[in-house]
Amino acid sequence: MSQIINQNILRVSDNTVVRPENSAAVRKGVPESNEPRMLRYQVANLQGIGTCPRQEDSFAFVNALGGEQAVRNGMMAILADGMGGMSGGKEASETAISTIKTDFQDYDPNGNIPDQLAASAVRADKIIYDMLGGNGGCTLAACLFLRNKMYFVSEGDSFIYLLRNGRLFRLNHEFNIVHESYLEAIHNRTVSAKSVVHRPDDEALTHFIGDGSGAAPERLVRPMDLYVGDIVMLCSDGVGDFVTENQVIEALGKKSTDEMCAELDRCINEGAEGKYRDNYTALIVKCTY
Known about the structure:
Elements: E1 3-11, H1 24-27, E2 40-48, E3 57-62, H2 68-73, E4 75-81, H3 89-104, H4 113-132, E5 140-146, E6 149-155, E7 159-164, E8 167-170, H5 177-187, E9 218-219, E10 224-225, E11 231-235, H6 237-240, H7 245-252, H8 257-269, E12 280-288
Antiparallel strand pairs: 1-2, 2-12, 3-4, 4-5, 5-6, 6-9, 6-10, 7-8, 7-11, 11-12
Helix pairs in contact: 3-4, 7-8
C-alpha cells in the first residue's frame, strides 16, 4: 500500500519586496526594499513497498515546517534507496538519512555548501561500511534549498528531476556500469551507437553509499537558482524506472503536491498486477510565494 504524506508549507522568510503602488510606507517616503522576495516550499512524499517483502527506502524532510532554523540554514530533502540484493539495505538507508540529518544541523550556511554536502556523503559511506562490512549499501539523493537556490549531492541511481516551464530536466547521473561506460567513451572520444557493449549487469552500481571507497559523490559546485513554479522531485529507481518522463511531466503538472503524488502512484500501479515492482519513493518540492 502506498502512503502519501500531506504537504507542509515552508515560509523561508517574511521579507518581501515592497510594492510602491499599494504601499503606505513608500507613500510616506520609506524607500522600497532591495531584498529579493524569498520563496516558500510546498512538500509532499509518496512511498510504496511494491511487490518486495519489506520497505528498504528511507527519506526525510528537514526544516519543512519553517521557523528560525529554516530561515537560517535552509530546508533539506533526503532520499536513500537501500540495496535489496544485499543483507543490510534497510539499515544502510536509515543510517545514511540519520547521518546527513545530523551533519546538517552543524552546517555553516555561509560556508562552502557543496563541500559540506560531499563530506556528509563520504562520512555516511564510511559509517555504513564499518557497520556492515560491505554487505549493505544505499543510494543517496539530497537537496538543500537555501536563499532561493538549490544544492544537491548524489550517489547511486536515484533520480533528481527539475520541472521548469513544462520542461523536465534530469539533474544528476547514474553511477552504474552502462553510464560509466558511456562516460568513458565520451572521454575517449569514441562514443557511438556501437561504442558501448551492453551486458547483463549494465544496471549494477559502480558507486554507492556503503561501498567503502570514499569516492567523491556527484554535487553541484555552484548552486542552481530557483524560481516560482519550479518543481523538484527526488525519487528512487522504483519510480524513475517505472514511470516515463511524459508521465512525470503530467504528474508534476497537477495543481497540488498531493495530487502530483496521487498521479505518480496511479502511473506506477496501473497495469502492474502480477508484475514485479520495486520499493518506490518520491519527494516533491514546489517553489511558490
